[in-house]
Amino acid sequence: MRPSLLPLQTLPLLLAACGGGGDTAPAPPPAAAHQLVSLTVAGHPHAVNVYRTAGAQRAIVLLHGGAGNLNAVAYQVGLNSSASTTTMATIHWDWLAANQVMLVVPQGQHIASNPGATTWSNHAMTSGQDDKAFLQALAARIRSEYGLADLTLMGHSMGGAMANRMWCESPATFSRYVSLAGPASATFAQPGTPCAPGASAAPYLGVFGDADPIVQSGGAWDAEVWNANPATVAASREAWLNPLLLGEFRQQQRRTAQLCGAVLDAGAYASAGNVDTWASCGGRLVLKRVRGADHGVASLDAQMGAASALDVMDAVMAFTAVR
After folding, report:
1. The AB hydrolase-1 domain covers which part of the protein (predicted)?
2. H/E/C letters for each residue in the chain?
């Protein structure tokens, strides 16, 4: 039975440095009942919804895609029944409680000349904000204010590209990283901006459709470089910095070489239904190719085969449980 619903609450603002720690009050115990919290992080304009689940032991920070918003992305992954609003009644608390997950959903920003291009500064696009610093501060706040040390950064599309940027440039900020249809910017192939997290980088899970017309992986799964769809770029051209993206499988090969010095072979995958899975570095790196899936989370879910609308989230939790 769902616990009694509490009204929307706003917690006191706590400015936390990206490294955490400091002279802060002890973290409160886990919430005794579910709460929906609205907050901002000092120095950053992003609105943040926190689905504070009773008894939560871990948190997932969920980033929406380009032109997206914090309500719609929670709907897309099956944790909100509404794509346009978030209330206590629209949140799928049962799944969150069963997995002891607190969901944190920030709102991406946009440059003044392109108000429809809500996104993240991930080297592919720009939001006009220092999103790396924002996510560092948000992670520190979650740890200090909610007492949760197990943090996953997960993003779809341009949110996934931002997760890739953080994995490359700030790997210790989160416990693990997950990208849904969001390859890294090809900027990381340039000498001045290498993806160099080091051998101790956090675990990474990628889930990508092989018929994705937005990042153009369809028919080019093992290509070195993917191209963002020209129509997608044209719709928000001023916000784009680099429409070239790193082919996800090739990037996973580089991740494998960096983390454990191994070679990831194109044929070294296990198949289950429509999903081909590559695992390397003792399972710290996992890549799932969902055959027949396009760019949307709904398509990934459908092609993964189960009746549940939470296929992607269940895969994320399975990865979280061991890494």
Report:
1. 60-309
2. CCCCCCCCECCCCCCCCCCCCCCCCCCCCCCCCCEEEEECCCCCCCCEEEEECCCCCEEEEEECCCCCCHHHHHHHCCCECCCCCCCCCCECHHHHHHCCEEEEEECCECCCCCCCCCECCCCCECCCCCHHHHHHHHHHHHHHHHCCCCEEEEEECHHHHHHHHHHHHCCCCCCEEEEECCCCEHHHHCCCCCCCCCCCCCCEEEEEECCCCCCCCCCCCCCCEEECCHHHHHHCHHHECCCEEECHHHHHHHHHHHHHCCCCCCCCCEEECCEEEEEEHHHCEEEEEECCCCCCHHHHHHHHCCCCCCHHHHHHHHHHHHC
- Report if residue 309 sits inside a domain: yes
What number of CA atoms fall less than 13 Å from residue 192's CA on the CB side? 2
Domain count, the chain: 1
In a domain, 274, yes or no: yes
Chain position carrying tokens 């980088």:
201
Residue 279's contacts (CB-CB under 8 Å, 6 or more residues apart) are 270, 285, 286
What does the buried/exposed string (b/e) look like for 176-193 if buried means 16 or more CB atoms within 10 Å of the residue's CB? bbbbbbbbbbbbbbeeee
CATH code at 277?
Answer: 3.40.50.1820
Which residue in this structure is represented by tokens 């009644």?
A: 89
Structural domain containing residue 104: 35-317
Average pLDDT over residues 267-294: 96
Percent share of the chain, pLDDT over 70: 90
Closest by CA to 289, choosing from 204, 224, 205, is: 205
Radius of gyration, CA atoms only, the chain:
19
- Inside any domain, residue 24: no
Q: Is residue 11 part of a domain?
A: no
Would you state the pLDDT for residue 45? 98
